[in-house]
Amino acid sequence: MWMRERILRCPDCGTRLDEWDPKKGGDRHAYIPQIFTCPGCAQTGILYEEETKAIRATQGGGAVSGMKVKLVPKHIIQSQVKKRTPAQRAQLAQMEAERVENERTGKATEQRPVKSQSLGGERPPPIKSSKGLVKPPSPPIED
Q: Are 40 and 71 contacting, i.e. CB atoms less than 8 angstroms apart?
């Protein structure tokens, strides 16, 4: 039953067509639109804009395909930070210092392999061609 109800709802506003149709017991003025700001969406939007700008600067413009920003509870991030070794912390501090310096001077940074959290491994960065970004080559499948 809930699946049918979910399918009948608009994916954007969450209402059903019946709720708007007077012939089906609905009301054309059943809802009043209001503007609100979701703090989570605002935070992800800010980071998305900053990262998109940084990626475009290092890649010479173009589209940023597939990038998503997710919200991770603060306690999980703090737990991950605590687990880092001193060498990892030093490496991250050095990478951040290089990024800030390159951003300040306008230099493009070299692309490093990106750690894929979902797959647990590293993947090469996208390849830039005259047609824009191209999917990196897939690693060979091992049996």
A: yes
Structure tokens at 81: 């930070």
Place of tokens 């998305």: 48
Separation between Cα atoms, residue 117 and residue 24, nearest integer Å: 48
Residue 115: which pLDDT band, with cuts at 50, 70 and 90? very low
pTM: 0.41
129: β partners = 132
DSSP string, 14-76: --BGGGT-GGGT--TTS--------HHHHHHHHHHHHHHHHHHHHHTS----S-------HHH
Q: Is the pLDDT of residue 116 over 50?
A: no
Model confidence pLDDT, tens digit, residues 37-53: 888 888 888 888 888 88
Mean pLDDT value across the chain:
75
What does the alpha-carbon distance between residue 75 and residue 111 come to, in Å, rounded to a whole number? 30
Going by C-beta distance under 8 Å and a sequence separation of 6 or more, which residues neighbour residue 5? 16
